[in-house]
Here is the input.
Amino acid sequence: MHPAQPSKHETMETQIVIIGVGGAGLAAAVAATEKGADVILLEKRRALGGNSAMAEGLFAAGSSVQKRMKIDVRADELFKIAMNYAHWQLDARLLRAYINKSADTIQWLEDKGLKFGIYPYYPNQFPFVWHCLKSGDTVKRGGFEIIKALVKDCEGLGVLLFRETGAKKLMTDRKGHVTGVVAVTRGKELRITARSVIIATGGYGGNKELLRKYYPYYNENMVLKGVPNKGDGLLMATEIGAATEGLGILHLAGNSPRGAFDLHVVAEEPNTLWVNKKGERFVDEAISFQHFESTNALVRQPDGVGYTLLDERIKQNMIEKGVIKGLGLKALPGTKLTDLGKELELAAEKDKDWIKIAKSWDEIAQWMGAQPEVLKATIDEYNAYCEQGYDEIFAKDRRYLDALRTPPYYALKYHARYLGTIGGIKINHHMEVLDQEDNPIPGLYAAGIDTGGWESDTYCVRLAGTTFGFAINSGRIAGENAAKYVEGGRLS
Ligand SMILES: Cc1cc2nc3c(=O)[nH]c(=O)nc-3n(C[C@H](O)[C@H](O)[C@H](O)COP(=O)(O)OP(=O)(O)OC[C@H]3O[C@@H](n4cnc5c(N)ncnc54)[C@H](O)[C@@H]3O)c2cc1C
Here is the structure.
């Protein structure tokens, strides 16, 4: 990879321009270059990797790792799980192309020196599909290392990569074929002519206008934990006539309180009690094992606000016995939150609007702005369900029914956390961008979370690692097909 900036050039020429240096863009660049194409990669920011650098694991079915671990995972089964979860409202061929590629992609990455292990995303997950990196006996975050390995490959393969170079516009000829990209680098315009362009700009999670337009539950308090991508790819593609698919899907990912990481863990523990700002319970808290789904319940609440309530006994159990669900690889089930007492007290001092510690539920209700009698009724009802071992409203698993009777009581306020968007540009299973008549726009491909048709309104956690997985796999497929296209080959 050449570290050069295109400062001396105002026009350049190559075979394929790839917009965005996240997982999808990098996988596309390596795959296309391995097939012999010349590639220029453009990255708007200085840092490389986008959201992909933060991912922990990626999905695969039937990989060499699963085979080594004697995990029986069948592509057919996973395909059906995902299609049924989405009520068949997806592009089945696109999803299948992704799933079918996924095992080979793990091998492709292992051939680059990465070693994978598999970890259940939630207890009792079956089958195991979440490929994280393995170091000795520990499993660790994969995103950053995968990005590093792909950037290194780009270096070796002679890919030109320009940082701080944001694509602004796609160029087309009179027939509507894509002919290149106009970009801006350090205030200067750069025109790159190319036979093919691959869009991989990572969605519109940081574009409030688009979020308001497409996501019905959007509220300004929602917390984006990823890179604030602006939807550049979507806007550029639709400007030249691309169709859209799957707009308005957020990659929701749980409750986002303020303060130390441990408080984020506490806010999603299944044996706590969750209420909205009126003091009413709104969800089976044990759904937090699939926090992509529990967040759907949260965003429907007034102002998208929720509160996790617990008492001193539950807190002590988290410290002494460990957490039940935890949060990602950083807090696996059983992790003891040894500093939790201090962290809660500190946060209650510092973030008075976000955490309350009180001797009575009335005090907590007043702090929340709820009617004390409503909160009291909620607590009494919940405690009664805990005592009888049956939750008459939400049928929460009785293992997580834990009465709240030991003061002091704790309340953590939160909004929804999301990691980005999913969906936007309509593509087919070759990752070709489609126009309004469902015909490919010649030369134009898209990959990663800029695209739609492979995920329904909610992240399907049975295919844990599916967004990062789709980024890498769709990137590879797009890169291979763009390389074929520039050589004049047919896509099969
Ligand atoms: C904290 C966190 C943890 C996550 N964990 C997981 C996980 O464990 N498993 C999983 O499946 N998913 C996970 N995800 C989601 C997953 O990382 C993403 O959905 C996926 O990696 C997106 O890949 P992408 O290549 O499409 O986009 P990105 O990786 O975001 O890359 C897009 C790139 O395009 C650049 N760009 C944008 N506009 C332009 C432009 N105009 N010109 C040039 N460049 C541009 C951006 O700066 C960025 O570098 C996580 C996300 C976050 C934030």
